[in-house]
Design brief:
Layout (H helix, E strand, L loop, with lengths): L2 H32 L5 E2 L2 E4 L1 H8 L9 E4 L3 H5 L7 E2 L2 H4 L14 E4 L4 H12 L5 E4 L2 H7 L6
Parallel strand pairs: 2-6, 3-4, 3-5, 5-6
Antiparallel strand pairs: 1-2
Length: 150
Protein backbone atom coordinates (compact mmCIF):
# COMPACT_ATOMS: atom_id res chain seq x y z
CA UNK A 1 0.00 0.00 0.00
CA UNK A 2 1.10 3.48 -0.66
CA UNK A 3 1.48 6.18 1.93
CA UNK A 4 -1.70 7.96 0.82
CA UNK A 5 -3.87 4.85 1.40
CA UNK A 6 -2.30 4.29 4.83
CA UNK A 7 -3.09 7.89 5.79
CA UNK A 8 -6.71 7.56 4.60
CA UNK A 9 -7.18 4.36 6.65
CA UNK A 10 -5.87 6.09 9.76
CA UNK A 11 -8.21 9.06 9.19
CA UNK A 12 -11.18 6.72 8.77
CA UNK A 13 -10.23 4.86 11.96
CA UNK A 14 -9.90 8.10 13.93
CA UNK A 15 -13.16 9.60 12.59
CA UNK A 16 -14.98 6.31 13.23
CA UNK A 17 -13.69 6.20 16.81
CA UNK A 18 -14.74 9.80 17.40
CA UNK A 19 -18.22 9.04 16.04
CA UNK A 20 -18.60 5.99 18.31
CA UNK A 21 -17.43 7.92 21.38
CA UNK A 22 -19.74 10.84 20.55
CA UNK A 23 -22.67 8.43 20.15
CA UNK A 24 -21.97 6.85 23.53
CA UNK A 25 -21.77 10.24 25.21
CA UNK A 26 -25.05 11.35 23.63
CA UNK A 27 -26.76 8.12 24.75
CA UNK A 28 -25.53 8.62 28.32
CA UNK A 29 -26.88 12.17 28.31
CA UNK A 30 -30.22 11.71 26.56
CA UNK A 31 -31.54 8.19 27.20
CA UNK A 32 -32.28 8.79 30.93
CA UNK A 33 -34.25 11.90 29.97
CA UNK A 34 -36.34 9.93 27.50
CA UNK A 35 -37.40 7.18 29.90
CA UNK A 36 -41.02 7.69 30.97
CA UNK A 37 -40.68 7.41 34.75
CA UNK A 38 -42.97 10.36 35.58
CA UNK A 39 -41.02 11.39 38.68
CA UNK A 40 -40.68 7.79 39.78
CA UNK A 41 -37.34 6.42 40.92
CA UNK A 42 -36.91 2.80 41.93
CA UNK A 43 -40.47 2.38 43.22
CA UNK A 44 -40.67 5.84 44.77
CA UNK A 45 -42.92 8.47 43.25
CA UNK A 46 -42.19 12.08 44.09
CA UNK A 47 -45.34 14.10 44.70
CA UNK A 48 -45.83 17.75 45.58
CA UNK A 49 -47.88 18.91 48.55
CA UNK A 50 -51.00 19.60 46.53
CA UNK A 51 -50.94 16.02 45.20
CA UNK A 52 -50.41 14.76 48.75
CA UNK A 53 -53.30 16.89 50.00
CA UNK A 54 -55.59 15.50 47.29
CA UNK A 55 -54.59 11.91 48.11
CA UNK A 56 -55.11 12.43 51.85
CA UNK A 57 -58.58 13.81 51.22
CA UNK A 58 -59.59 11.17 48.66
CA UNK A 59 -60.99 8.30 50.75
CA UNK A 60 -62.56 6.74 47.67
CA UNK A 61 -59.30 6.15 45.77
CA UNK A 62 -57.02 5.93 48.82
CA UNK A 63 -59.12 4.39 51.61
CA UNK A 64 -56.12 2.91 53.47
CA UNK A 65 -53.57 5.65 52.81
CA UNK A 66 -50.82 5.97 55.42
CA UNK A 67 -48.99 9.23 56.12
CA UNK A 68 -45.55 8.53 57.58
CA UNK A 69 -43.73 11.38 59.31
CA UNK A 70 -39.99 10.67 59.64
CA UNK A 71 -39.05 13.79 61.59
CA UNK A 72 -38.03 13.86 65.25
CA UNK A 73 -40.52 13.76 68.11
CA UNK A 74 -40.02 17.48 68.86
CA UNK A 75 -40.60 18.41 65.20
CA UNK A 76 -43.72 16.25 65.16
CA UNK A 77 -44.98 17.86 68.38
CA UNK A 78 -44.61 21.33 66.85
CA UNK A 79 -47.18 20.43 64.16
CA UNK A 80 -47.98 17.39 62.04
CA UNK A 81 -50.42 16.09 59.47
CA UNK A 82 -53.63 14.69 60.90
CA UNK A 83 -53.53 10.92 61.53
CA UNK A 84 -49.87 10.66 60.57
CA UNK A 85 -47.64 7.97 62.02
CA UNK A 86 -44.37 9.15 63.53
CA UNK A 87 -41.32 6.97 63.03
CA UNK A 88 -38.16 9.11 62.99
CA UNK A 89 -35.78 8.24 60.16
CA UNK A 90 -33.06 7.04 62.52
CA UNK A 91 -35.52 4.50 64.02
CA UNK A 92 -37.20 3.39 60.80
CA UNK A 93 -35.16 0.28 59.98
CA UNK A 94 -35.65 -1.07 63.52
CA UNK A 95 -39.40 -0.36 63.47
CA UNK A 96 -40.38 -1.66 60.03
CA UNK A 97 -42.48 -4.37 61.67
CA UNK A 98 -44.91 -1.62 62.73
CA UNK A 99 -45.58 -0.96 59.04
CA UNK A 100 -45.53 -4.58 57.83
CA UNK A 101 -49.29 -4.72 57.23
CA UNK A 102 -48.99 -1.69 54.90
CA UNK A 103 -46.49 -3.17 52.40
CA UNK A 104 -49.05 -2.96 49.58
CA UNK A 105 -50.76 0.22 50.80
CA UNK A 106 -50.07 3.74 49.57
CA UNK A 107 -47.70 5.48 51.97
CA UNK A 108 -46.92 9.18 51.77
CA UNK A 109 -43.57 9.81 53.44
CA UNK A 110 -42.62 13.29 54.59
CA UNK A 111 -40.17 15.17 56.78
CA UNK A 112 -39.36 18.85 57.20
CA UNK A 113 -37.97 19.61 53.74
CA UNK A 114 -37.76 16.37 51.76
CA UNK A 115 -34.30 14.89 52.22
CA UNK A 116 -35.05 12.55 55.14
CA UNK A 117 -38.26 11.43 53.47
CA UNK A 118 -36.29 10.47 50.35
CA UNK A 119 -33.96 8.35 52.51
CA UNK A 120 -36.91 6.81 54.35
CA UNK A 121 -38.65 6.06 51.05
CA UNK A 122 -35.53 4.24 49.86
CA UNK A 123 -35.50 2.15 53.07
CA UNK A 124 -39.16 1.22 52.55
CA UNK A 125 -38.68 0.23 48.91
CA UNK A 126 -35.58 -1.80 49.82
CA UNK A 127 -37.82 -3.67 52.28
CA UNK A 128 -40.47 -4.49 49.67
CA UNK A 129 -42.97 -1.71 50.31
CA UNK A 130 -44.58 -1.14 46.94
CA UNK A 131 -46.55 2.15 46.88
CA UNK A 132 -44.27 4.84 48.25
CA UNK A 133 -44.88 8.54 47.65
CA UNK A 134 -42.19 11.00 48.71
CA UNK A 135 -43.72 14.40 49.54
CA UNK A 136 -41.24 16.83 48.01
CA UNK A 137 -40.66 19.93 50.09
CA UNK A 138 -41.91 18.27 53.28
CA UNK A 139 -44.05 19.91 55.90
CA UNK A 140 -42.34 23.24 55.17
CA UNK A 141 -43.91 23.26 51.70
CA UNK A 142 -47.17 21.93 53.18
CA UNK A 143 -47.32 24.85 55.63
CA UNK A 144 -46.35 27.35 52.91
CA UNK A 145 -49.29 26.10 50.84
CA UNK A 146 -51.62 26.83 53.77
CA UNK A 147 -52.70 23.23 54.37
CA UNK A 148 -53.75 22.30 57.92
CA UNK A 149 -51.66 20.66 60.61
CA UNK A 150 -52.50 19.39 64.06
Amino acid sequence: MDQHSELNKKKILIYGSVAVIASIILMIIFIPQLSPNNGQTDGIEDINVSEAYEMINDDKNYPNLIVLDVRTQSEYDSGHLNNSILIPLDELENRLDELEEYKDTEIIVHCRSGSRSQSASEVLVANEFSKIYNMVGGISAWNSAGYPTV
